[in-house]
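TL;DR need structure tokens for one chain.
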Amino acid sequence: MEHTLHLCKDKKIKKLVEQNGIFTLKKQKNVCTYLCASIMSQQLSTKVADVIYQRFLNLYEGKGPSPEQIIATAPETLRSIGLSNAKVSYVQNVARFALEQGMDHRKLHKMENEEVIEYLTQIKGVGRWTVEMLLMFALARPDVFALDDLGIQNAMIGLYKLDRTDKKQFKEEMLRISKKWSPYRTYACMYLWRWKDNPPPLK
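>> reply
TL;DR here they are.
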């Protein structure tokens, strides 16, 4: 795999590749459902988020709903599956935007990464990080770097001995290091997250 060979030029990432094998990216067709799931999972553990998302799908016979179906669902019903008031309105904002402005994966595929971020962060409740995750895991873009992700930051502090005391300098260092991973920064992020899940034993 070309991306693996490229990333292995970085000795620290090479170690993670050797430990975790080769990752692949897969496109998701239902962007609206993916974005709703991202909003639901914010500030929750993966386990709790999965339960809530399954309850959400169960409202629609286990399938990803259309934007029309989401808008037609009463806010009380969405609250009853464990969503906060804010998340209920954000999920409905996503569905409304999908209907009024369009969120079809074919439309988004014509846009550059930054254009997609600019377009979807117009939705109240959708921030840059959420769209970066969508670019990576729904649109399968290979060169996205999640600068503000805590897991990525912690992994880079651990692996590259960075210091986050000076936030501006810290982020500049992260960007400098990540440049050499381009055009496969999405894959680099996947390895960095894996490091966070399996930190090396303390020496």
